Amino acid sequence: MADEDAELVRRAKAGEYAAFEALVSKYERPIYTLARRIVGNVEDAEDVVQDSFASVVEHVRDFREESSFYTWISRIASNYALKLLRKRRGLPTVPLDERTAREDQDLPRPEFIAPWARDPREAGREPSVRVLLEEALGELDEKYRLAFVLRDLQGLSTAAAARALGISEGNLKVRLLRARLRLRERLTRVLGDPSARVAPPADHEESRHDHEVR
């Protein structure tokens, strides 16, 4: 697969448009999926795809092939998607204020705790589970979704993901943890083994009881 991409890139660099079309055909859907995960809607995702491949046409000769073609174009698409968010939705380009940072520290308490009935890697290959993951991603608050997509799905380093979002590495880690916890619980409600369900932490009930007594 890598050799096939390398040959297509070589031909595209030489000006063969058919090779570029082959790369578009191969990666248009994955790049659309990535863009949709970041921007959250079809129209914006389609804009990102168009801008990304237009950039590839213009800069393919600058591709040094130190990484895979998909890695290269996914980074281009991620940058376009984040720029679009900043432009259309007012996504901050500077670190959040202390109040918002403190809110990020308030991690959610899991309510449904249970081991999965199947191996997560095996389950993750099923189309129905992939659809469930996409739905769960769509339910996340935007800032947590972006942290998860850039760090866990795109494989950016903590530092690179934090820079892309304009936040500190500490905030990125907290957002990522929050996203993972929410996604894990969402998936566990479907994939978890109900017979092995564990009760939520006792201090949650104790705190509620204390509050009621007062």
Question: Can you walk me through this structure?
Answer:
With 214 residues, this protein is an all-alpha fold. The chain has two domains: 2-89, Rna Polymerase Sigma Factor, Chain: A (Orthogonal Bundle); 98-200, Arc Repressor Mutant, subunit A, CATH 1.10.10. It has eleven helices and no strands. The protein has helices at 2-13, 17-39, 42-59, 69-89, 98-104, 120-123, 127-139, 142-153, 158-165, 169-191, 202-213. It starts with a helix and ends with a helix.
Q: What is Rg?
A: 21 Å
* Succession of helices and strands: HHHHHHHHHHH
Domains, number: 2
Strand content: under 5%
Shape: globular
The CATH superfamily of the largest domain is Winged helix-like DNA-binding domain superfamily/Winged helix DNA-binding domain
Distance between the termini: 65 Å
| CATH class category label of the largest domain | Mainly Alpha
How does the SSE layout of this entry go?
Layout lengths: L1 H12 L3 H23 L2 H18 L9 H21 L8 H7 L15 H4 L3 H13 L2 H12 L4 H8 L3 H23 L10 H12 L1
Helix pairs in contact: 1-2, 2-3, 2-4, 3-4, 7-10, 8-9, 8-10, 9-10
Provide a compact summary of the structure.
The protein has helices spanning 2-13, 17-39, 42-59, 69-89, 98-104, 120-123, 127-139, 142-153, 158-165, 169-191, 202-213. With 214 residues, the chain is mostly helical.
What are the main properties of this structure?
globular; 0% strand; Rna Polymerase Sigma Factor, Chain: A; mainly alpha; Arc Repressor Mutant, subunit A; 214 residues; 2 domains
